[in-house]
Amino acid sequence: MNTQDLIIKYALGIPKRFRRIQKNFFVNEMAKDFQALGYEVKAVSGKHKKVQGINLVAGNLEKARYIIVSNYDTPSHNYGNPMKYYPYNGASTYASSFLPTFAPVIIGLLFSLYIWLYQVPNFDFTNHFWNSLAWAIALFAAMVLPAFMCGSTANRVNFNRNTSGCIAALKTAELLSDEQKKVTAFVLTDYGCTRHTGDYILRNAIPDLIDHKTVIMLDCVGDKNGKWAVGYKKDTQSLADQMAACFNSEAEKVRCPKIDLRYTSFSFYPKSILISHPQKIADTYVIKNVATNHDTNCDHELIDELANALVKFCK
Q1: What pairing do the DSSP bridges indicate for beta strands 214-218 and 272-276?
Q2: Per-residue pLDDT averaged across 235-258, rounded?
Q3: What is the tens place of the pLDDT at every residue in 187-228?
Q4: Mean pLDDT computed over 222-243
Q5: CB–CB of 220/286 below 8 Å?
Q6: Is 150 helix (H, G, I), strand (E, B) or coil?
Q7: E strand residue ranges, 82-177
Q8: Fewer CB within 10 Å of terminal CB in the chain, N or C?
Q9: What sign for the dihedral angle of Cα 277, 280, 286, 287?
């Protein structure tokens, strides 16, 4: 499969995976592509805190030595640009996304307060019916509409987060040898941008084995404006060293303290590494423009380089 064709199919053809119907269509198409490569494919559903999610699993999880994981859902639209995403620091991501996410509510509350203080006292439906009605409608809209916009409007463009990770997983699946396919499984997880329901589903699928599997997470790997980074934990530095050595270009290794992994999928898997292609600003690793209409970068050469590096690692 040509990587550029995969980008067109999934980044342009199925750009939003926010509603269930959008997710189901994406999972169905990905399942067909994995099946065409000879993988056993199944959808695994589950709930966490009453939220239903569906993971796509390609390969045998129980027999797999390596599990390559990428979330397939896309985020809600943020109304402040630029939105910054920190793949190795969940707390920083949360802080960065707070104002953009809740901007409609904040503006709505301020506008509602203005109407309530300066316009409501002047309401006169007897002598100034239309003027009073217009301000009443504006007050209602300012109080109600922002609540619907906040967190419930799908972002329309999602090349890098995390379409790039899903395409890289599929491309890797294509390049693996027959022997490697027997010991490698792929999981596309649901709700990776928010509740991490898919990570709970994966853990529950093989609860006695998951902590002993080598989990390789792919997150935002398509933006050329950056460099390869491999995140690791206290006990997985050797895995990061091995992975970094598999790239053709330089790859930095990022130590991730436990406190920084809050609110991240990376925190779910003890024996894991996280690969991304962020920009390095000072001592932080940042992915820019996610959850906005500027998330338009998914470079096919980066995807191919990553896929080839993963094939080397899985040997």
Answers
A1: parallel
A2: 96
A3: 999 999 999 999 999 999 999 999 999 999 999 999 999 999
A4: 96
A5: no
A6: coil
A7: 84-85
A8: C
A9: negative
Q: CA of 270: how far to CAs of 17, 147, 216, in Å? A: 28, 37, 11
What are the structure tokens assigned to 158, written together?
């999602």
Given a cut of 70, is residue 147 above it in pLDDT? no
Phi, psi of 253 (to 5 degrees): -105, 130
- Is the pLDDT reported for residue 311 higher than 70? yes
Structure tokens at 98: 């707070």
Lookup: tokens for 253: 């290794």
Residue 135, phi then psi, degrees to nearest 5: -70, -35
CB atoms within 10 A of CB 314: 21
The residues facing 68 across adjacent strands are: 186, 216
Residue whose structure tokens are 């967190």: 151
Question: Among the listed ranges 99-113, 159-173, 188-202, which one has the minimum average pLDDT value?
Answer: 99-113
CA 112 to chain centre: 34
Return the closest-CA partner of residue 292 out of 167, 153, 191: 153
Q: Show the tokens assigned to 5.
A: 């064709």
Q: What is the mean pLDDT of residues 50-78?
A: 96
Q: Rounded CA gap, 296 and 305, in Å?
A: 19
Give kind and range of the element (H or E) at residue 134: helix 129-149
Q: How many whole angstroms separate alpha carbon 306 and alpha carbon 64?
A: 20
| Cα torsion 15, 16, 17, 22: sign | negative
| Residue 144 binned pLDDT confidence (cut-offs 50, 70, 90) | confident
- 76-108 b/e with 16+ CB inside 10 Å = b? bbbbeeebbbbbbbbebbeebbeebbbbbbeeb
